[in-house]
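Retro notes (design track)

What went well: tokenization of the new backbones is finally stable.
What didn't: we kept losing track of which sequence belonged to which structure.
Fix going forward: every design gets posted as structure first, then sequence, in one message. First example under the new rule, 87 residues:
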């Protein structure tokens, strides 16, 4: 039996520009939880997360979960799974 894997996509650091993480492959699962922990905010920035999928035939990216702006400190959990209800 293959178990879940915890990985860190971005280490804790100040962010001042838009960035993408490396492409991730969920080989043994059907869904994922993405945890965003905002520990500090200066001025009026926001984090706008987006989880995308890639069409293997065309290589084009499409949105699975376009997130809303996170404007306060704290933890946000994004969940993607077939059939999960939208909250």
């Amino acid at each position: 039996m293959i178990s879940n894997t915890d990985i860190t996509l971005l280490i804790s650091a100040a962010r001042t520009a838009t960035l993408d993480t490396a492409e991730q492959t969920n080989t043994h699962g059907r869904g994922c939880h993405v945890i965003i922990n905002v520990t500090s905010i200066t001025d009026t920035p926001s984090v706008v997360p987006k989880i995308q999928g890639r069409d293997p035939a065309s290589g084009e990216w499409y949105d699975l979960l376009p997130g809303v702006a996170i404007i306060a400190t704290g933890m946000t959990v994004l969940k993607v799974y077939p059939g999960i209800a939208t909250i």
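Added context from the reviewer: Residues 41-80 form one domain.
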